[in-house]
Amino acid sequence: MIVITAPTGNIGHQVLDKVLAGDQPVRVIVRDPAKLSTDVRDRVEVIQGSHGDPQVVTRAFDGADAVFWLLPADRQAASADEAYAGFTRPAAEAMRGQGVKRVVDVSALGRNTPYAGRAGHVTASLAMDDLIAGTGVAFRALAAPTFMDNVLRQVGVIKEQGMFFGPNSSDLELPTVATRDIAAVAARLLLDSTWTGQEEVPVLGPEDLSSNDMAAVISEVLGTRVKYQQVPGHAFKDRITGSGASEGMAQAMLDMATAKENGLDKGIARTPQHAIDTPTTFRQWCEETLRPAVQAT
């Protein structure tokens, strides 16, 4: 039995689709089953509720061979630690108590850098990983950089203003990965019952790009000039709180951005295997995902 959490989210639904292509029984934890397609509901066992609820995860993890663990977005949590480790704690107890064999989660790069302890969401992600690892399960933490898909949050301003914004330097080259590639790696691990032990699996994407590089690719794909504009840290944080996030979660976003500026995502040496495991280039993602989204706006 494979258990999928957050099966209607951006990454979770892609993992679910890929796992359903296999031949193993699947169980999902979902707050609103109506958000699952009829076809999916007919093919999975549905446990309704929050995967932060001790009773829900205890029931869902009963007889589970593998669990895909993915946090819901909680922009109003008091702190990143509450949103990550706090939310995960009941599940960790259920993993231990129900004898779950393998767990795959989506985490973040940065553990082997000097910035890991003051990197906001990343620091909280690593604490979540440690909590899961402490249960003794076989564990793979998918250590991800920034998602290409985050650009979709700015589709409107890209179309209307020909710009997108961020807190980091325009020439800072960083890895970036498509969520569909993360989902593919996760599904492969969930369907493989042979692995043991505990490891981080870096999912780096095929190349490092600066925001200026990304702007150039977006411009070419959309056929119109698009520029990147760096936003001062205080303005970046104000935008996040202004959109409804708590002070603690906004500060965690700023701390993460600052750590990335200083080298957080540079702790893993890129190898050819990373491009094999996560092959989607930013140009390909723009052609197949961003351009249709802009056209539909």
Folded structure, characterized:
With 297 residues, the chain is α/β, with parallel strands linked by helices. It has a domain at 2-147 and 176-206 and 266-280: 3-Layer(aba) Sandwich (Rossmann fold), CATH 3.40.50.720. It is built from 12 helices and 12 strands. Strands 3-2-1-4-5-6-10 form a 7-stranded parallel beta sheet, with helices on both faces. It has a 3-stranded mixed beta sheet with strand order 7-9-11. The chain is globular and about 55 Å long.
Please list the strands of the largest sheet in the order they lie side by side: 3-2-1-4-5-6-10
CATH class of the domain at 2-147 and 176-206 and 266-280: Alpha Beta
Determine the N-to-C terminus distance: 40 Å
Class per helix and strand makeup: alpha/beta
Helix content: 40-55%
Q: What is the CATH fold-level name of the domain at 2-147 and 176-206 and 266-280?
A: Rossmann fold
Largest sheet: 7 strands, parallel
Radius of gyration (Å): 19 Å
Query: Which architecture name of the domain at 2-147 and 176-206 and 266-280 does CATH use?
Result: 3-Layer(aba) Sandwich
**Uncertain residue segments:** none
Instruction: Please count the helical segments.
Output: 12
**Strand portion, in percent?**
15-25%
> How many strands?
12
Q: Mean pLDDT score, rounded? A: 96
Shape summary: globular
